[in-house]
Amino acid sequence: MKKILKYLVCVWLMTLSVKGMAQDPQFSQFYNAPLYLNPGFTGITPQQRLIANHRLQWPNLPQVFSTYAISYEMFIGELKSGFGLMATTDKMGTGGWRTTTAGLLYSYKIRVSKDWVFSPGLYFGYGQQGIDQSKLTLGDELASDQSGSNDPGVSRIDNAQYLDIGSGIVMYNKALWLGISAYHMNQPNISLIGNESRLPMKINVHGGMKIPLYNGPRTISRVSYLTPGFVYRRQGNVFSQLDLGVQYHIDPVSIGVWYRGVPLKRSFQYLGVEDKKVQQDAIVFSLALQFNTFQIGYSYDFTLSDLSTAAGGAHEVSIIYEFTTKPFRKGVKRKNKLIPCPTFNSKEGFWN
What we know:
Blueprint: H1 2-21, H2 34-37, E1 48-57, E2 65-76, E3 81-92, E4 97-108, E5 110-111, E6 117-130, H3 139-144, E7 160-172, E8 176-183, E9 202-209, E10 211-212, E11 224-235, E12 239-250, E13 253-270, E14 273-290, E15 294-303, E16 314-323, H4 334-337
Antiparallel strand pairs: 1-2, 1-16, 2-3, 3-4, 4-6, 5-6, 6-7, 7-8, 8-9, 9-11, 10-11, 11-12, 12-13, 13-14, 14-15, 15-16
């Protein structure tokens, strides 16, 4: 009975993994993972910036999803350009399925008016994904209680390596930003067995704004404000998702609540039977502390889907560190330093 149960669990977790292969991991704190959202955000801060993100999803299940991302970026005023590096790794399932990527990002800042800036960006990356065969237990192993599988198909499994291309644009001023990005534009082949299995292109449409809650004649040390935002993601023909919510700030503290899902009925096939359901995913609660050059954020996803809270929701942590950048060389024109940077925080340097 234990062998049968182990086999069923293995099959179920592998099914989860196969479902996840067709879509990228996502961060609930998308505003704290800007390069992962849109390469047009590269160098949008007037300082150098280092960001680390970690997401642990469904912790009550055995090692289902664990995602890490780290990025570094800087803005060079003389070139009106932002340069960045980003690396991610995502592990899911007891089979040890892992996807790792590393890439270069570039953006160019174009001032279209006194207040508005247009920022197109590019991403060029390298990806690798595969499965840890030592962690798999296949049917013939369970039936014969042997070590190792005799299935000849196992020898065909290899890691997939691929080139990944993305691009995006952001239009922003001091209090409003809108953008759209596309990743996997070349739809790389990610098959592990030499066949063709294309990674679908992912589209992100996003925006946000800053709404001060105080417009009095005098300056006060702790101004409160709201930053509502949204991001709509679509990957291939089967995955779509909307994140919509708001952060309330009274520096150095911010709290937020977000909804994830698509509140429309869509048709799904279950064993040949068609059903219509509303895509409810999660309610996200977030908390962040912002200091002069350092920020730390935490969020928890309260699951609304059929998976319920039994899987443990999702925990996410983000850490941002900014440090002063020196001019590319002496004599950088002041007008190139005056490019605004949208942010979910109010601090010196927001408008440079």
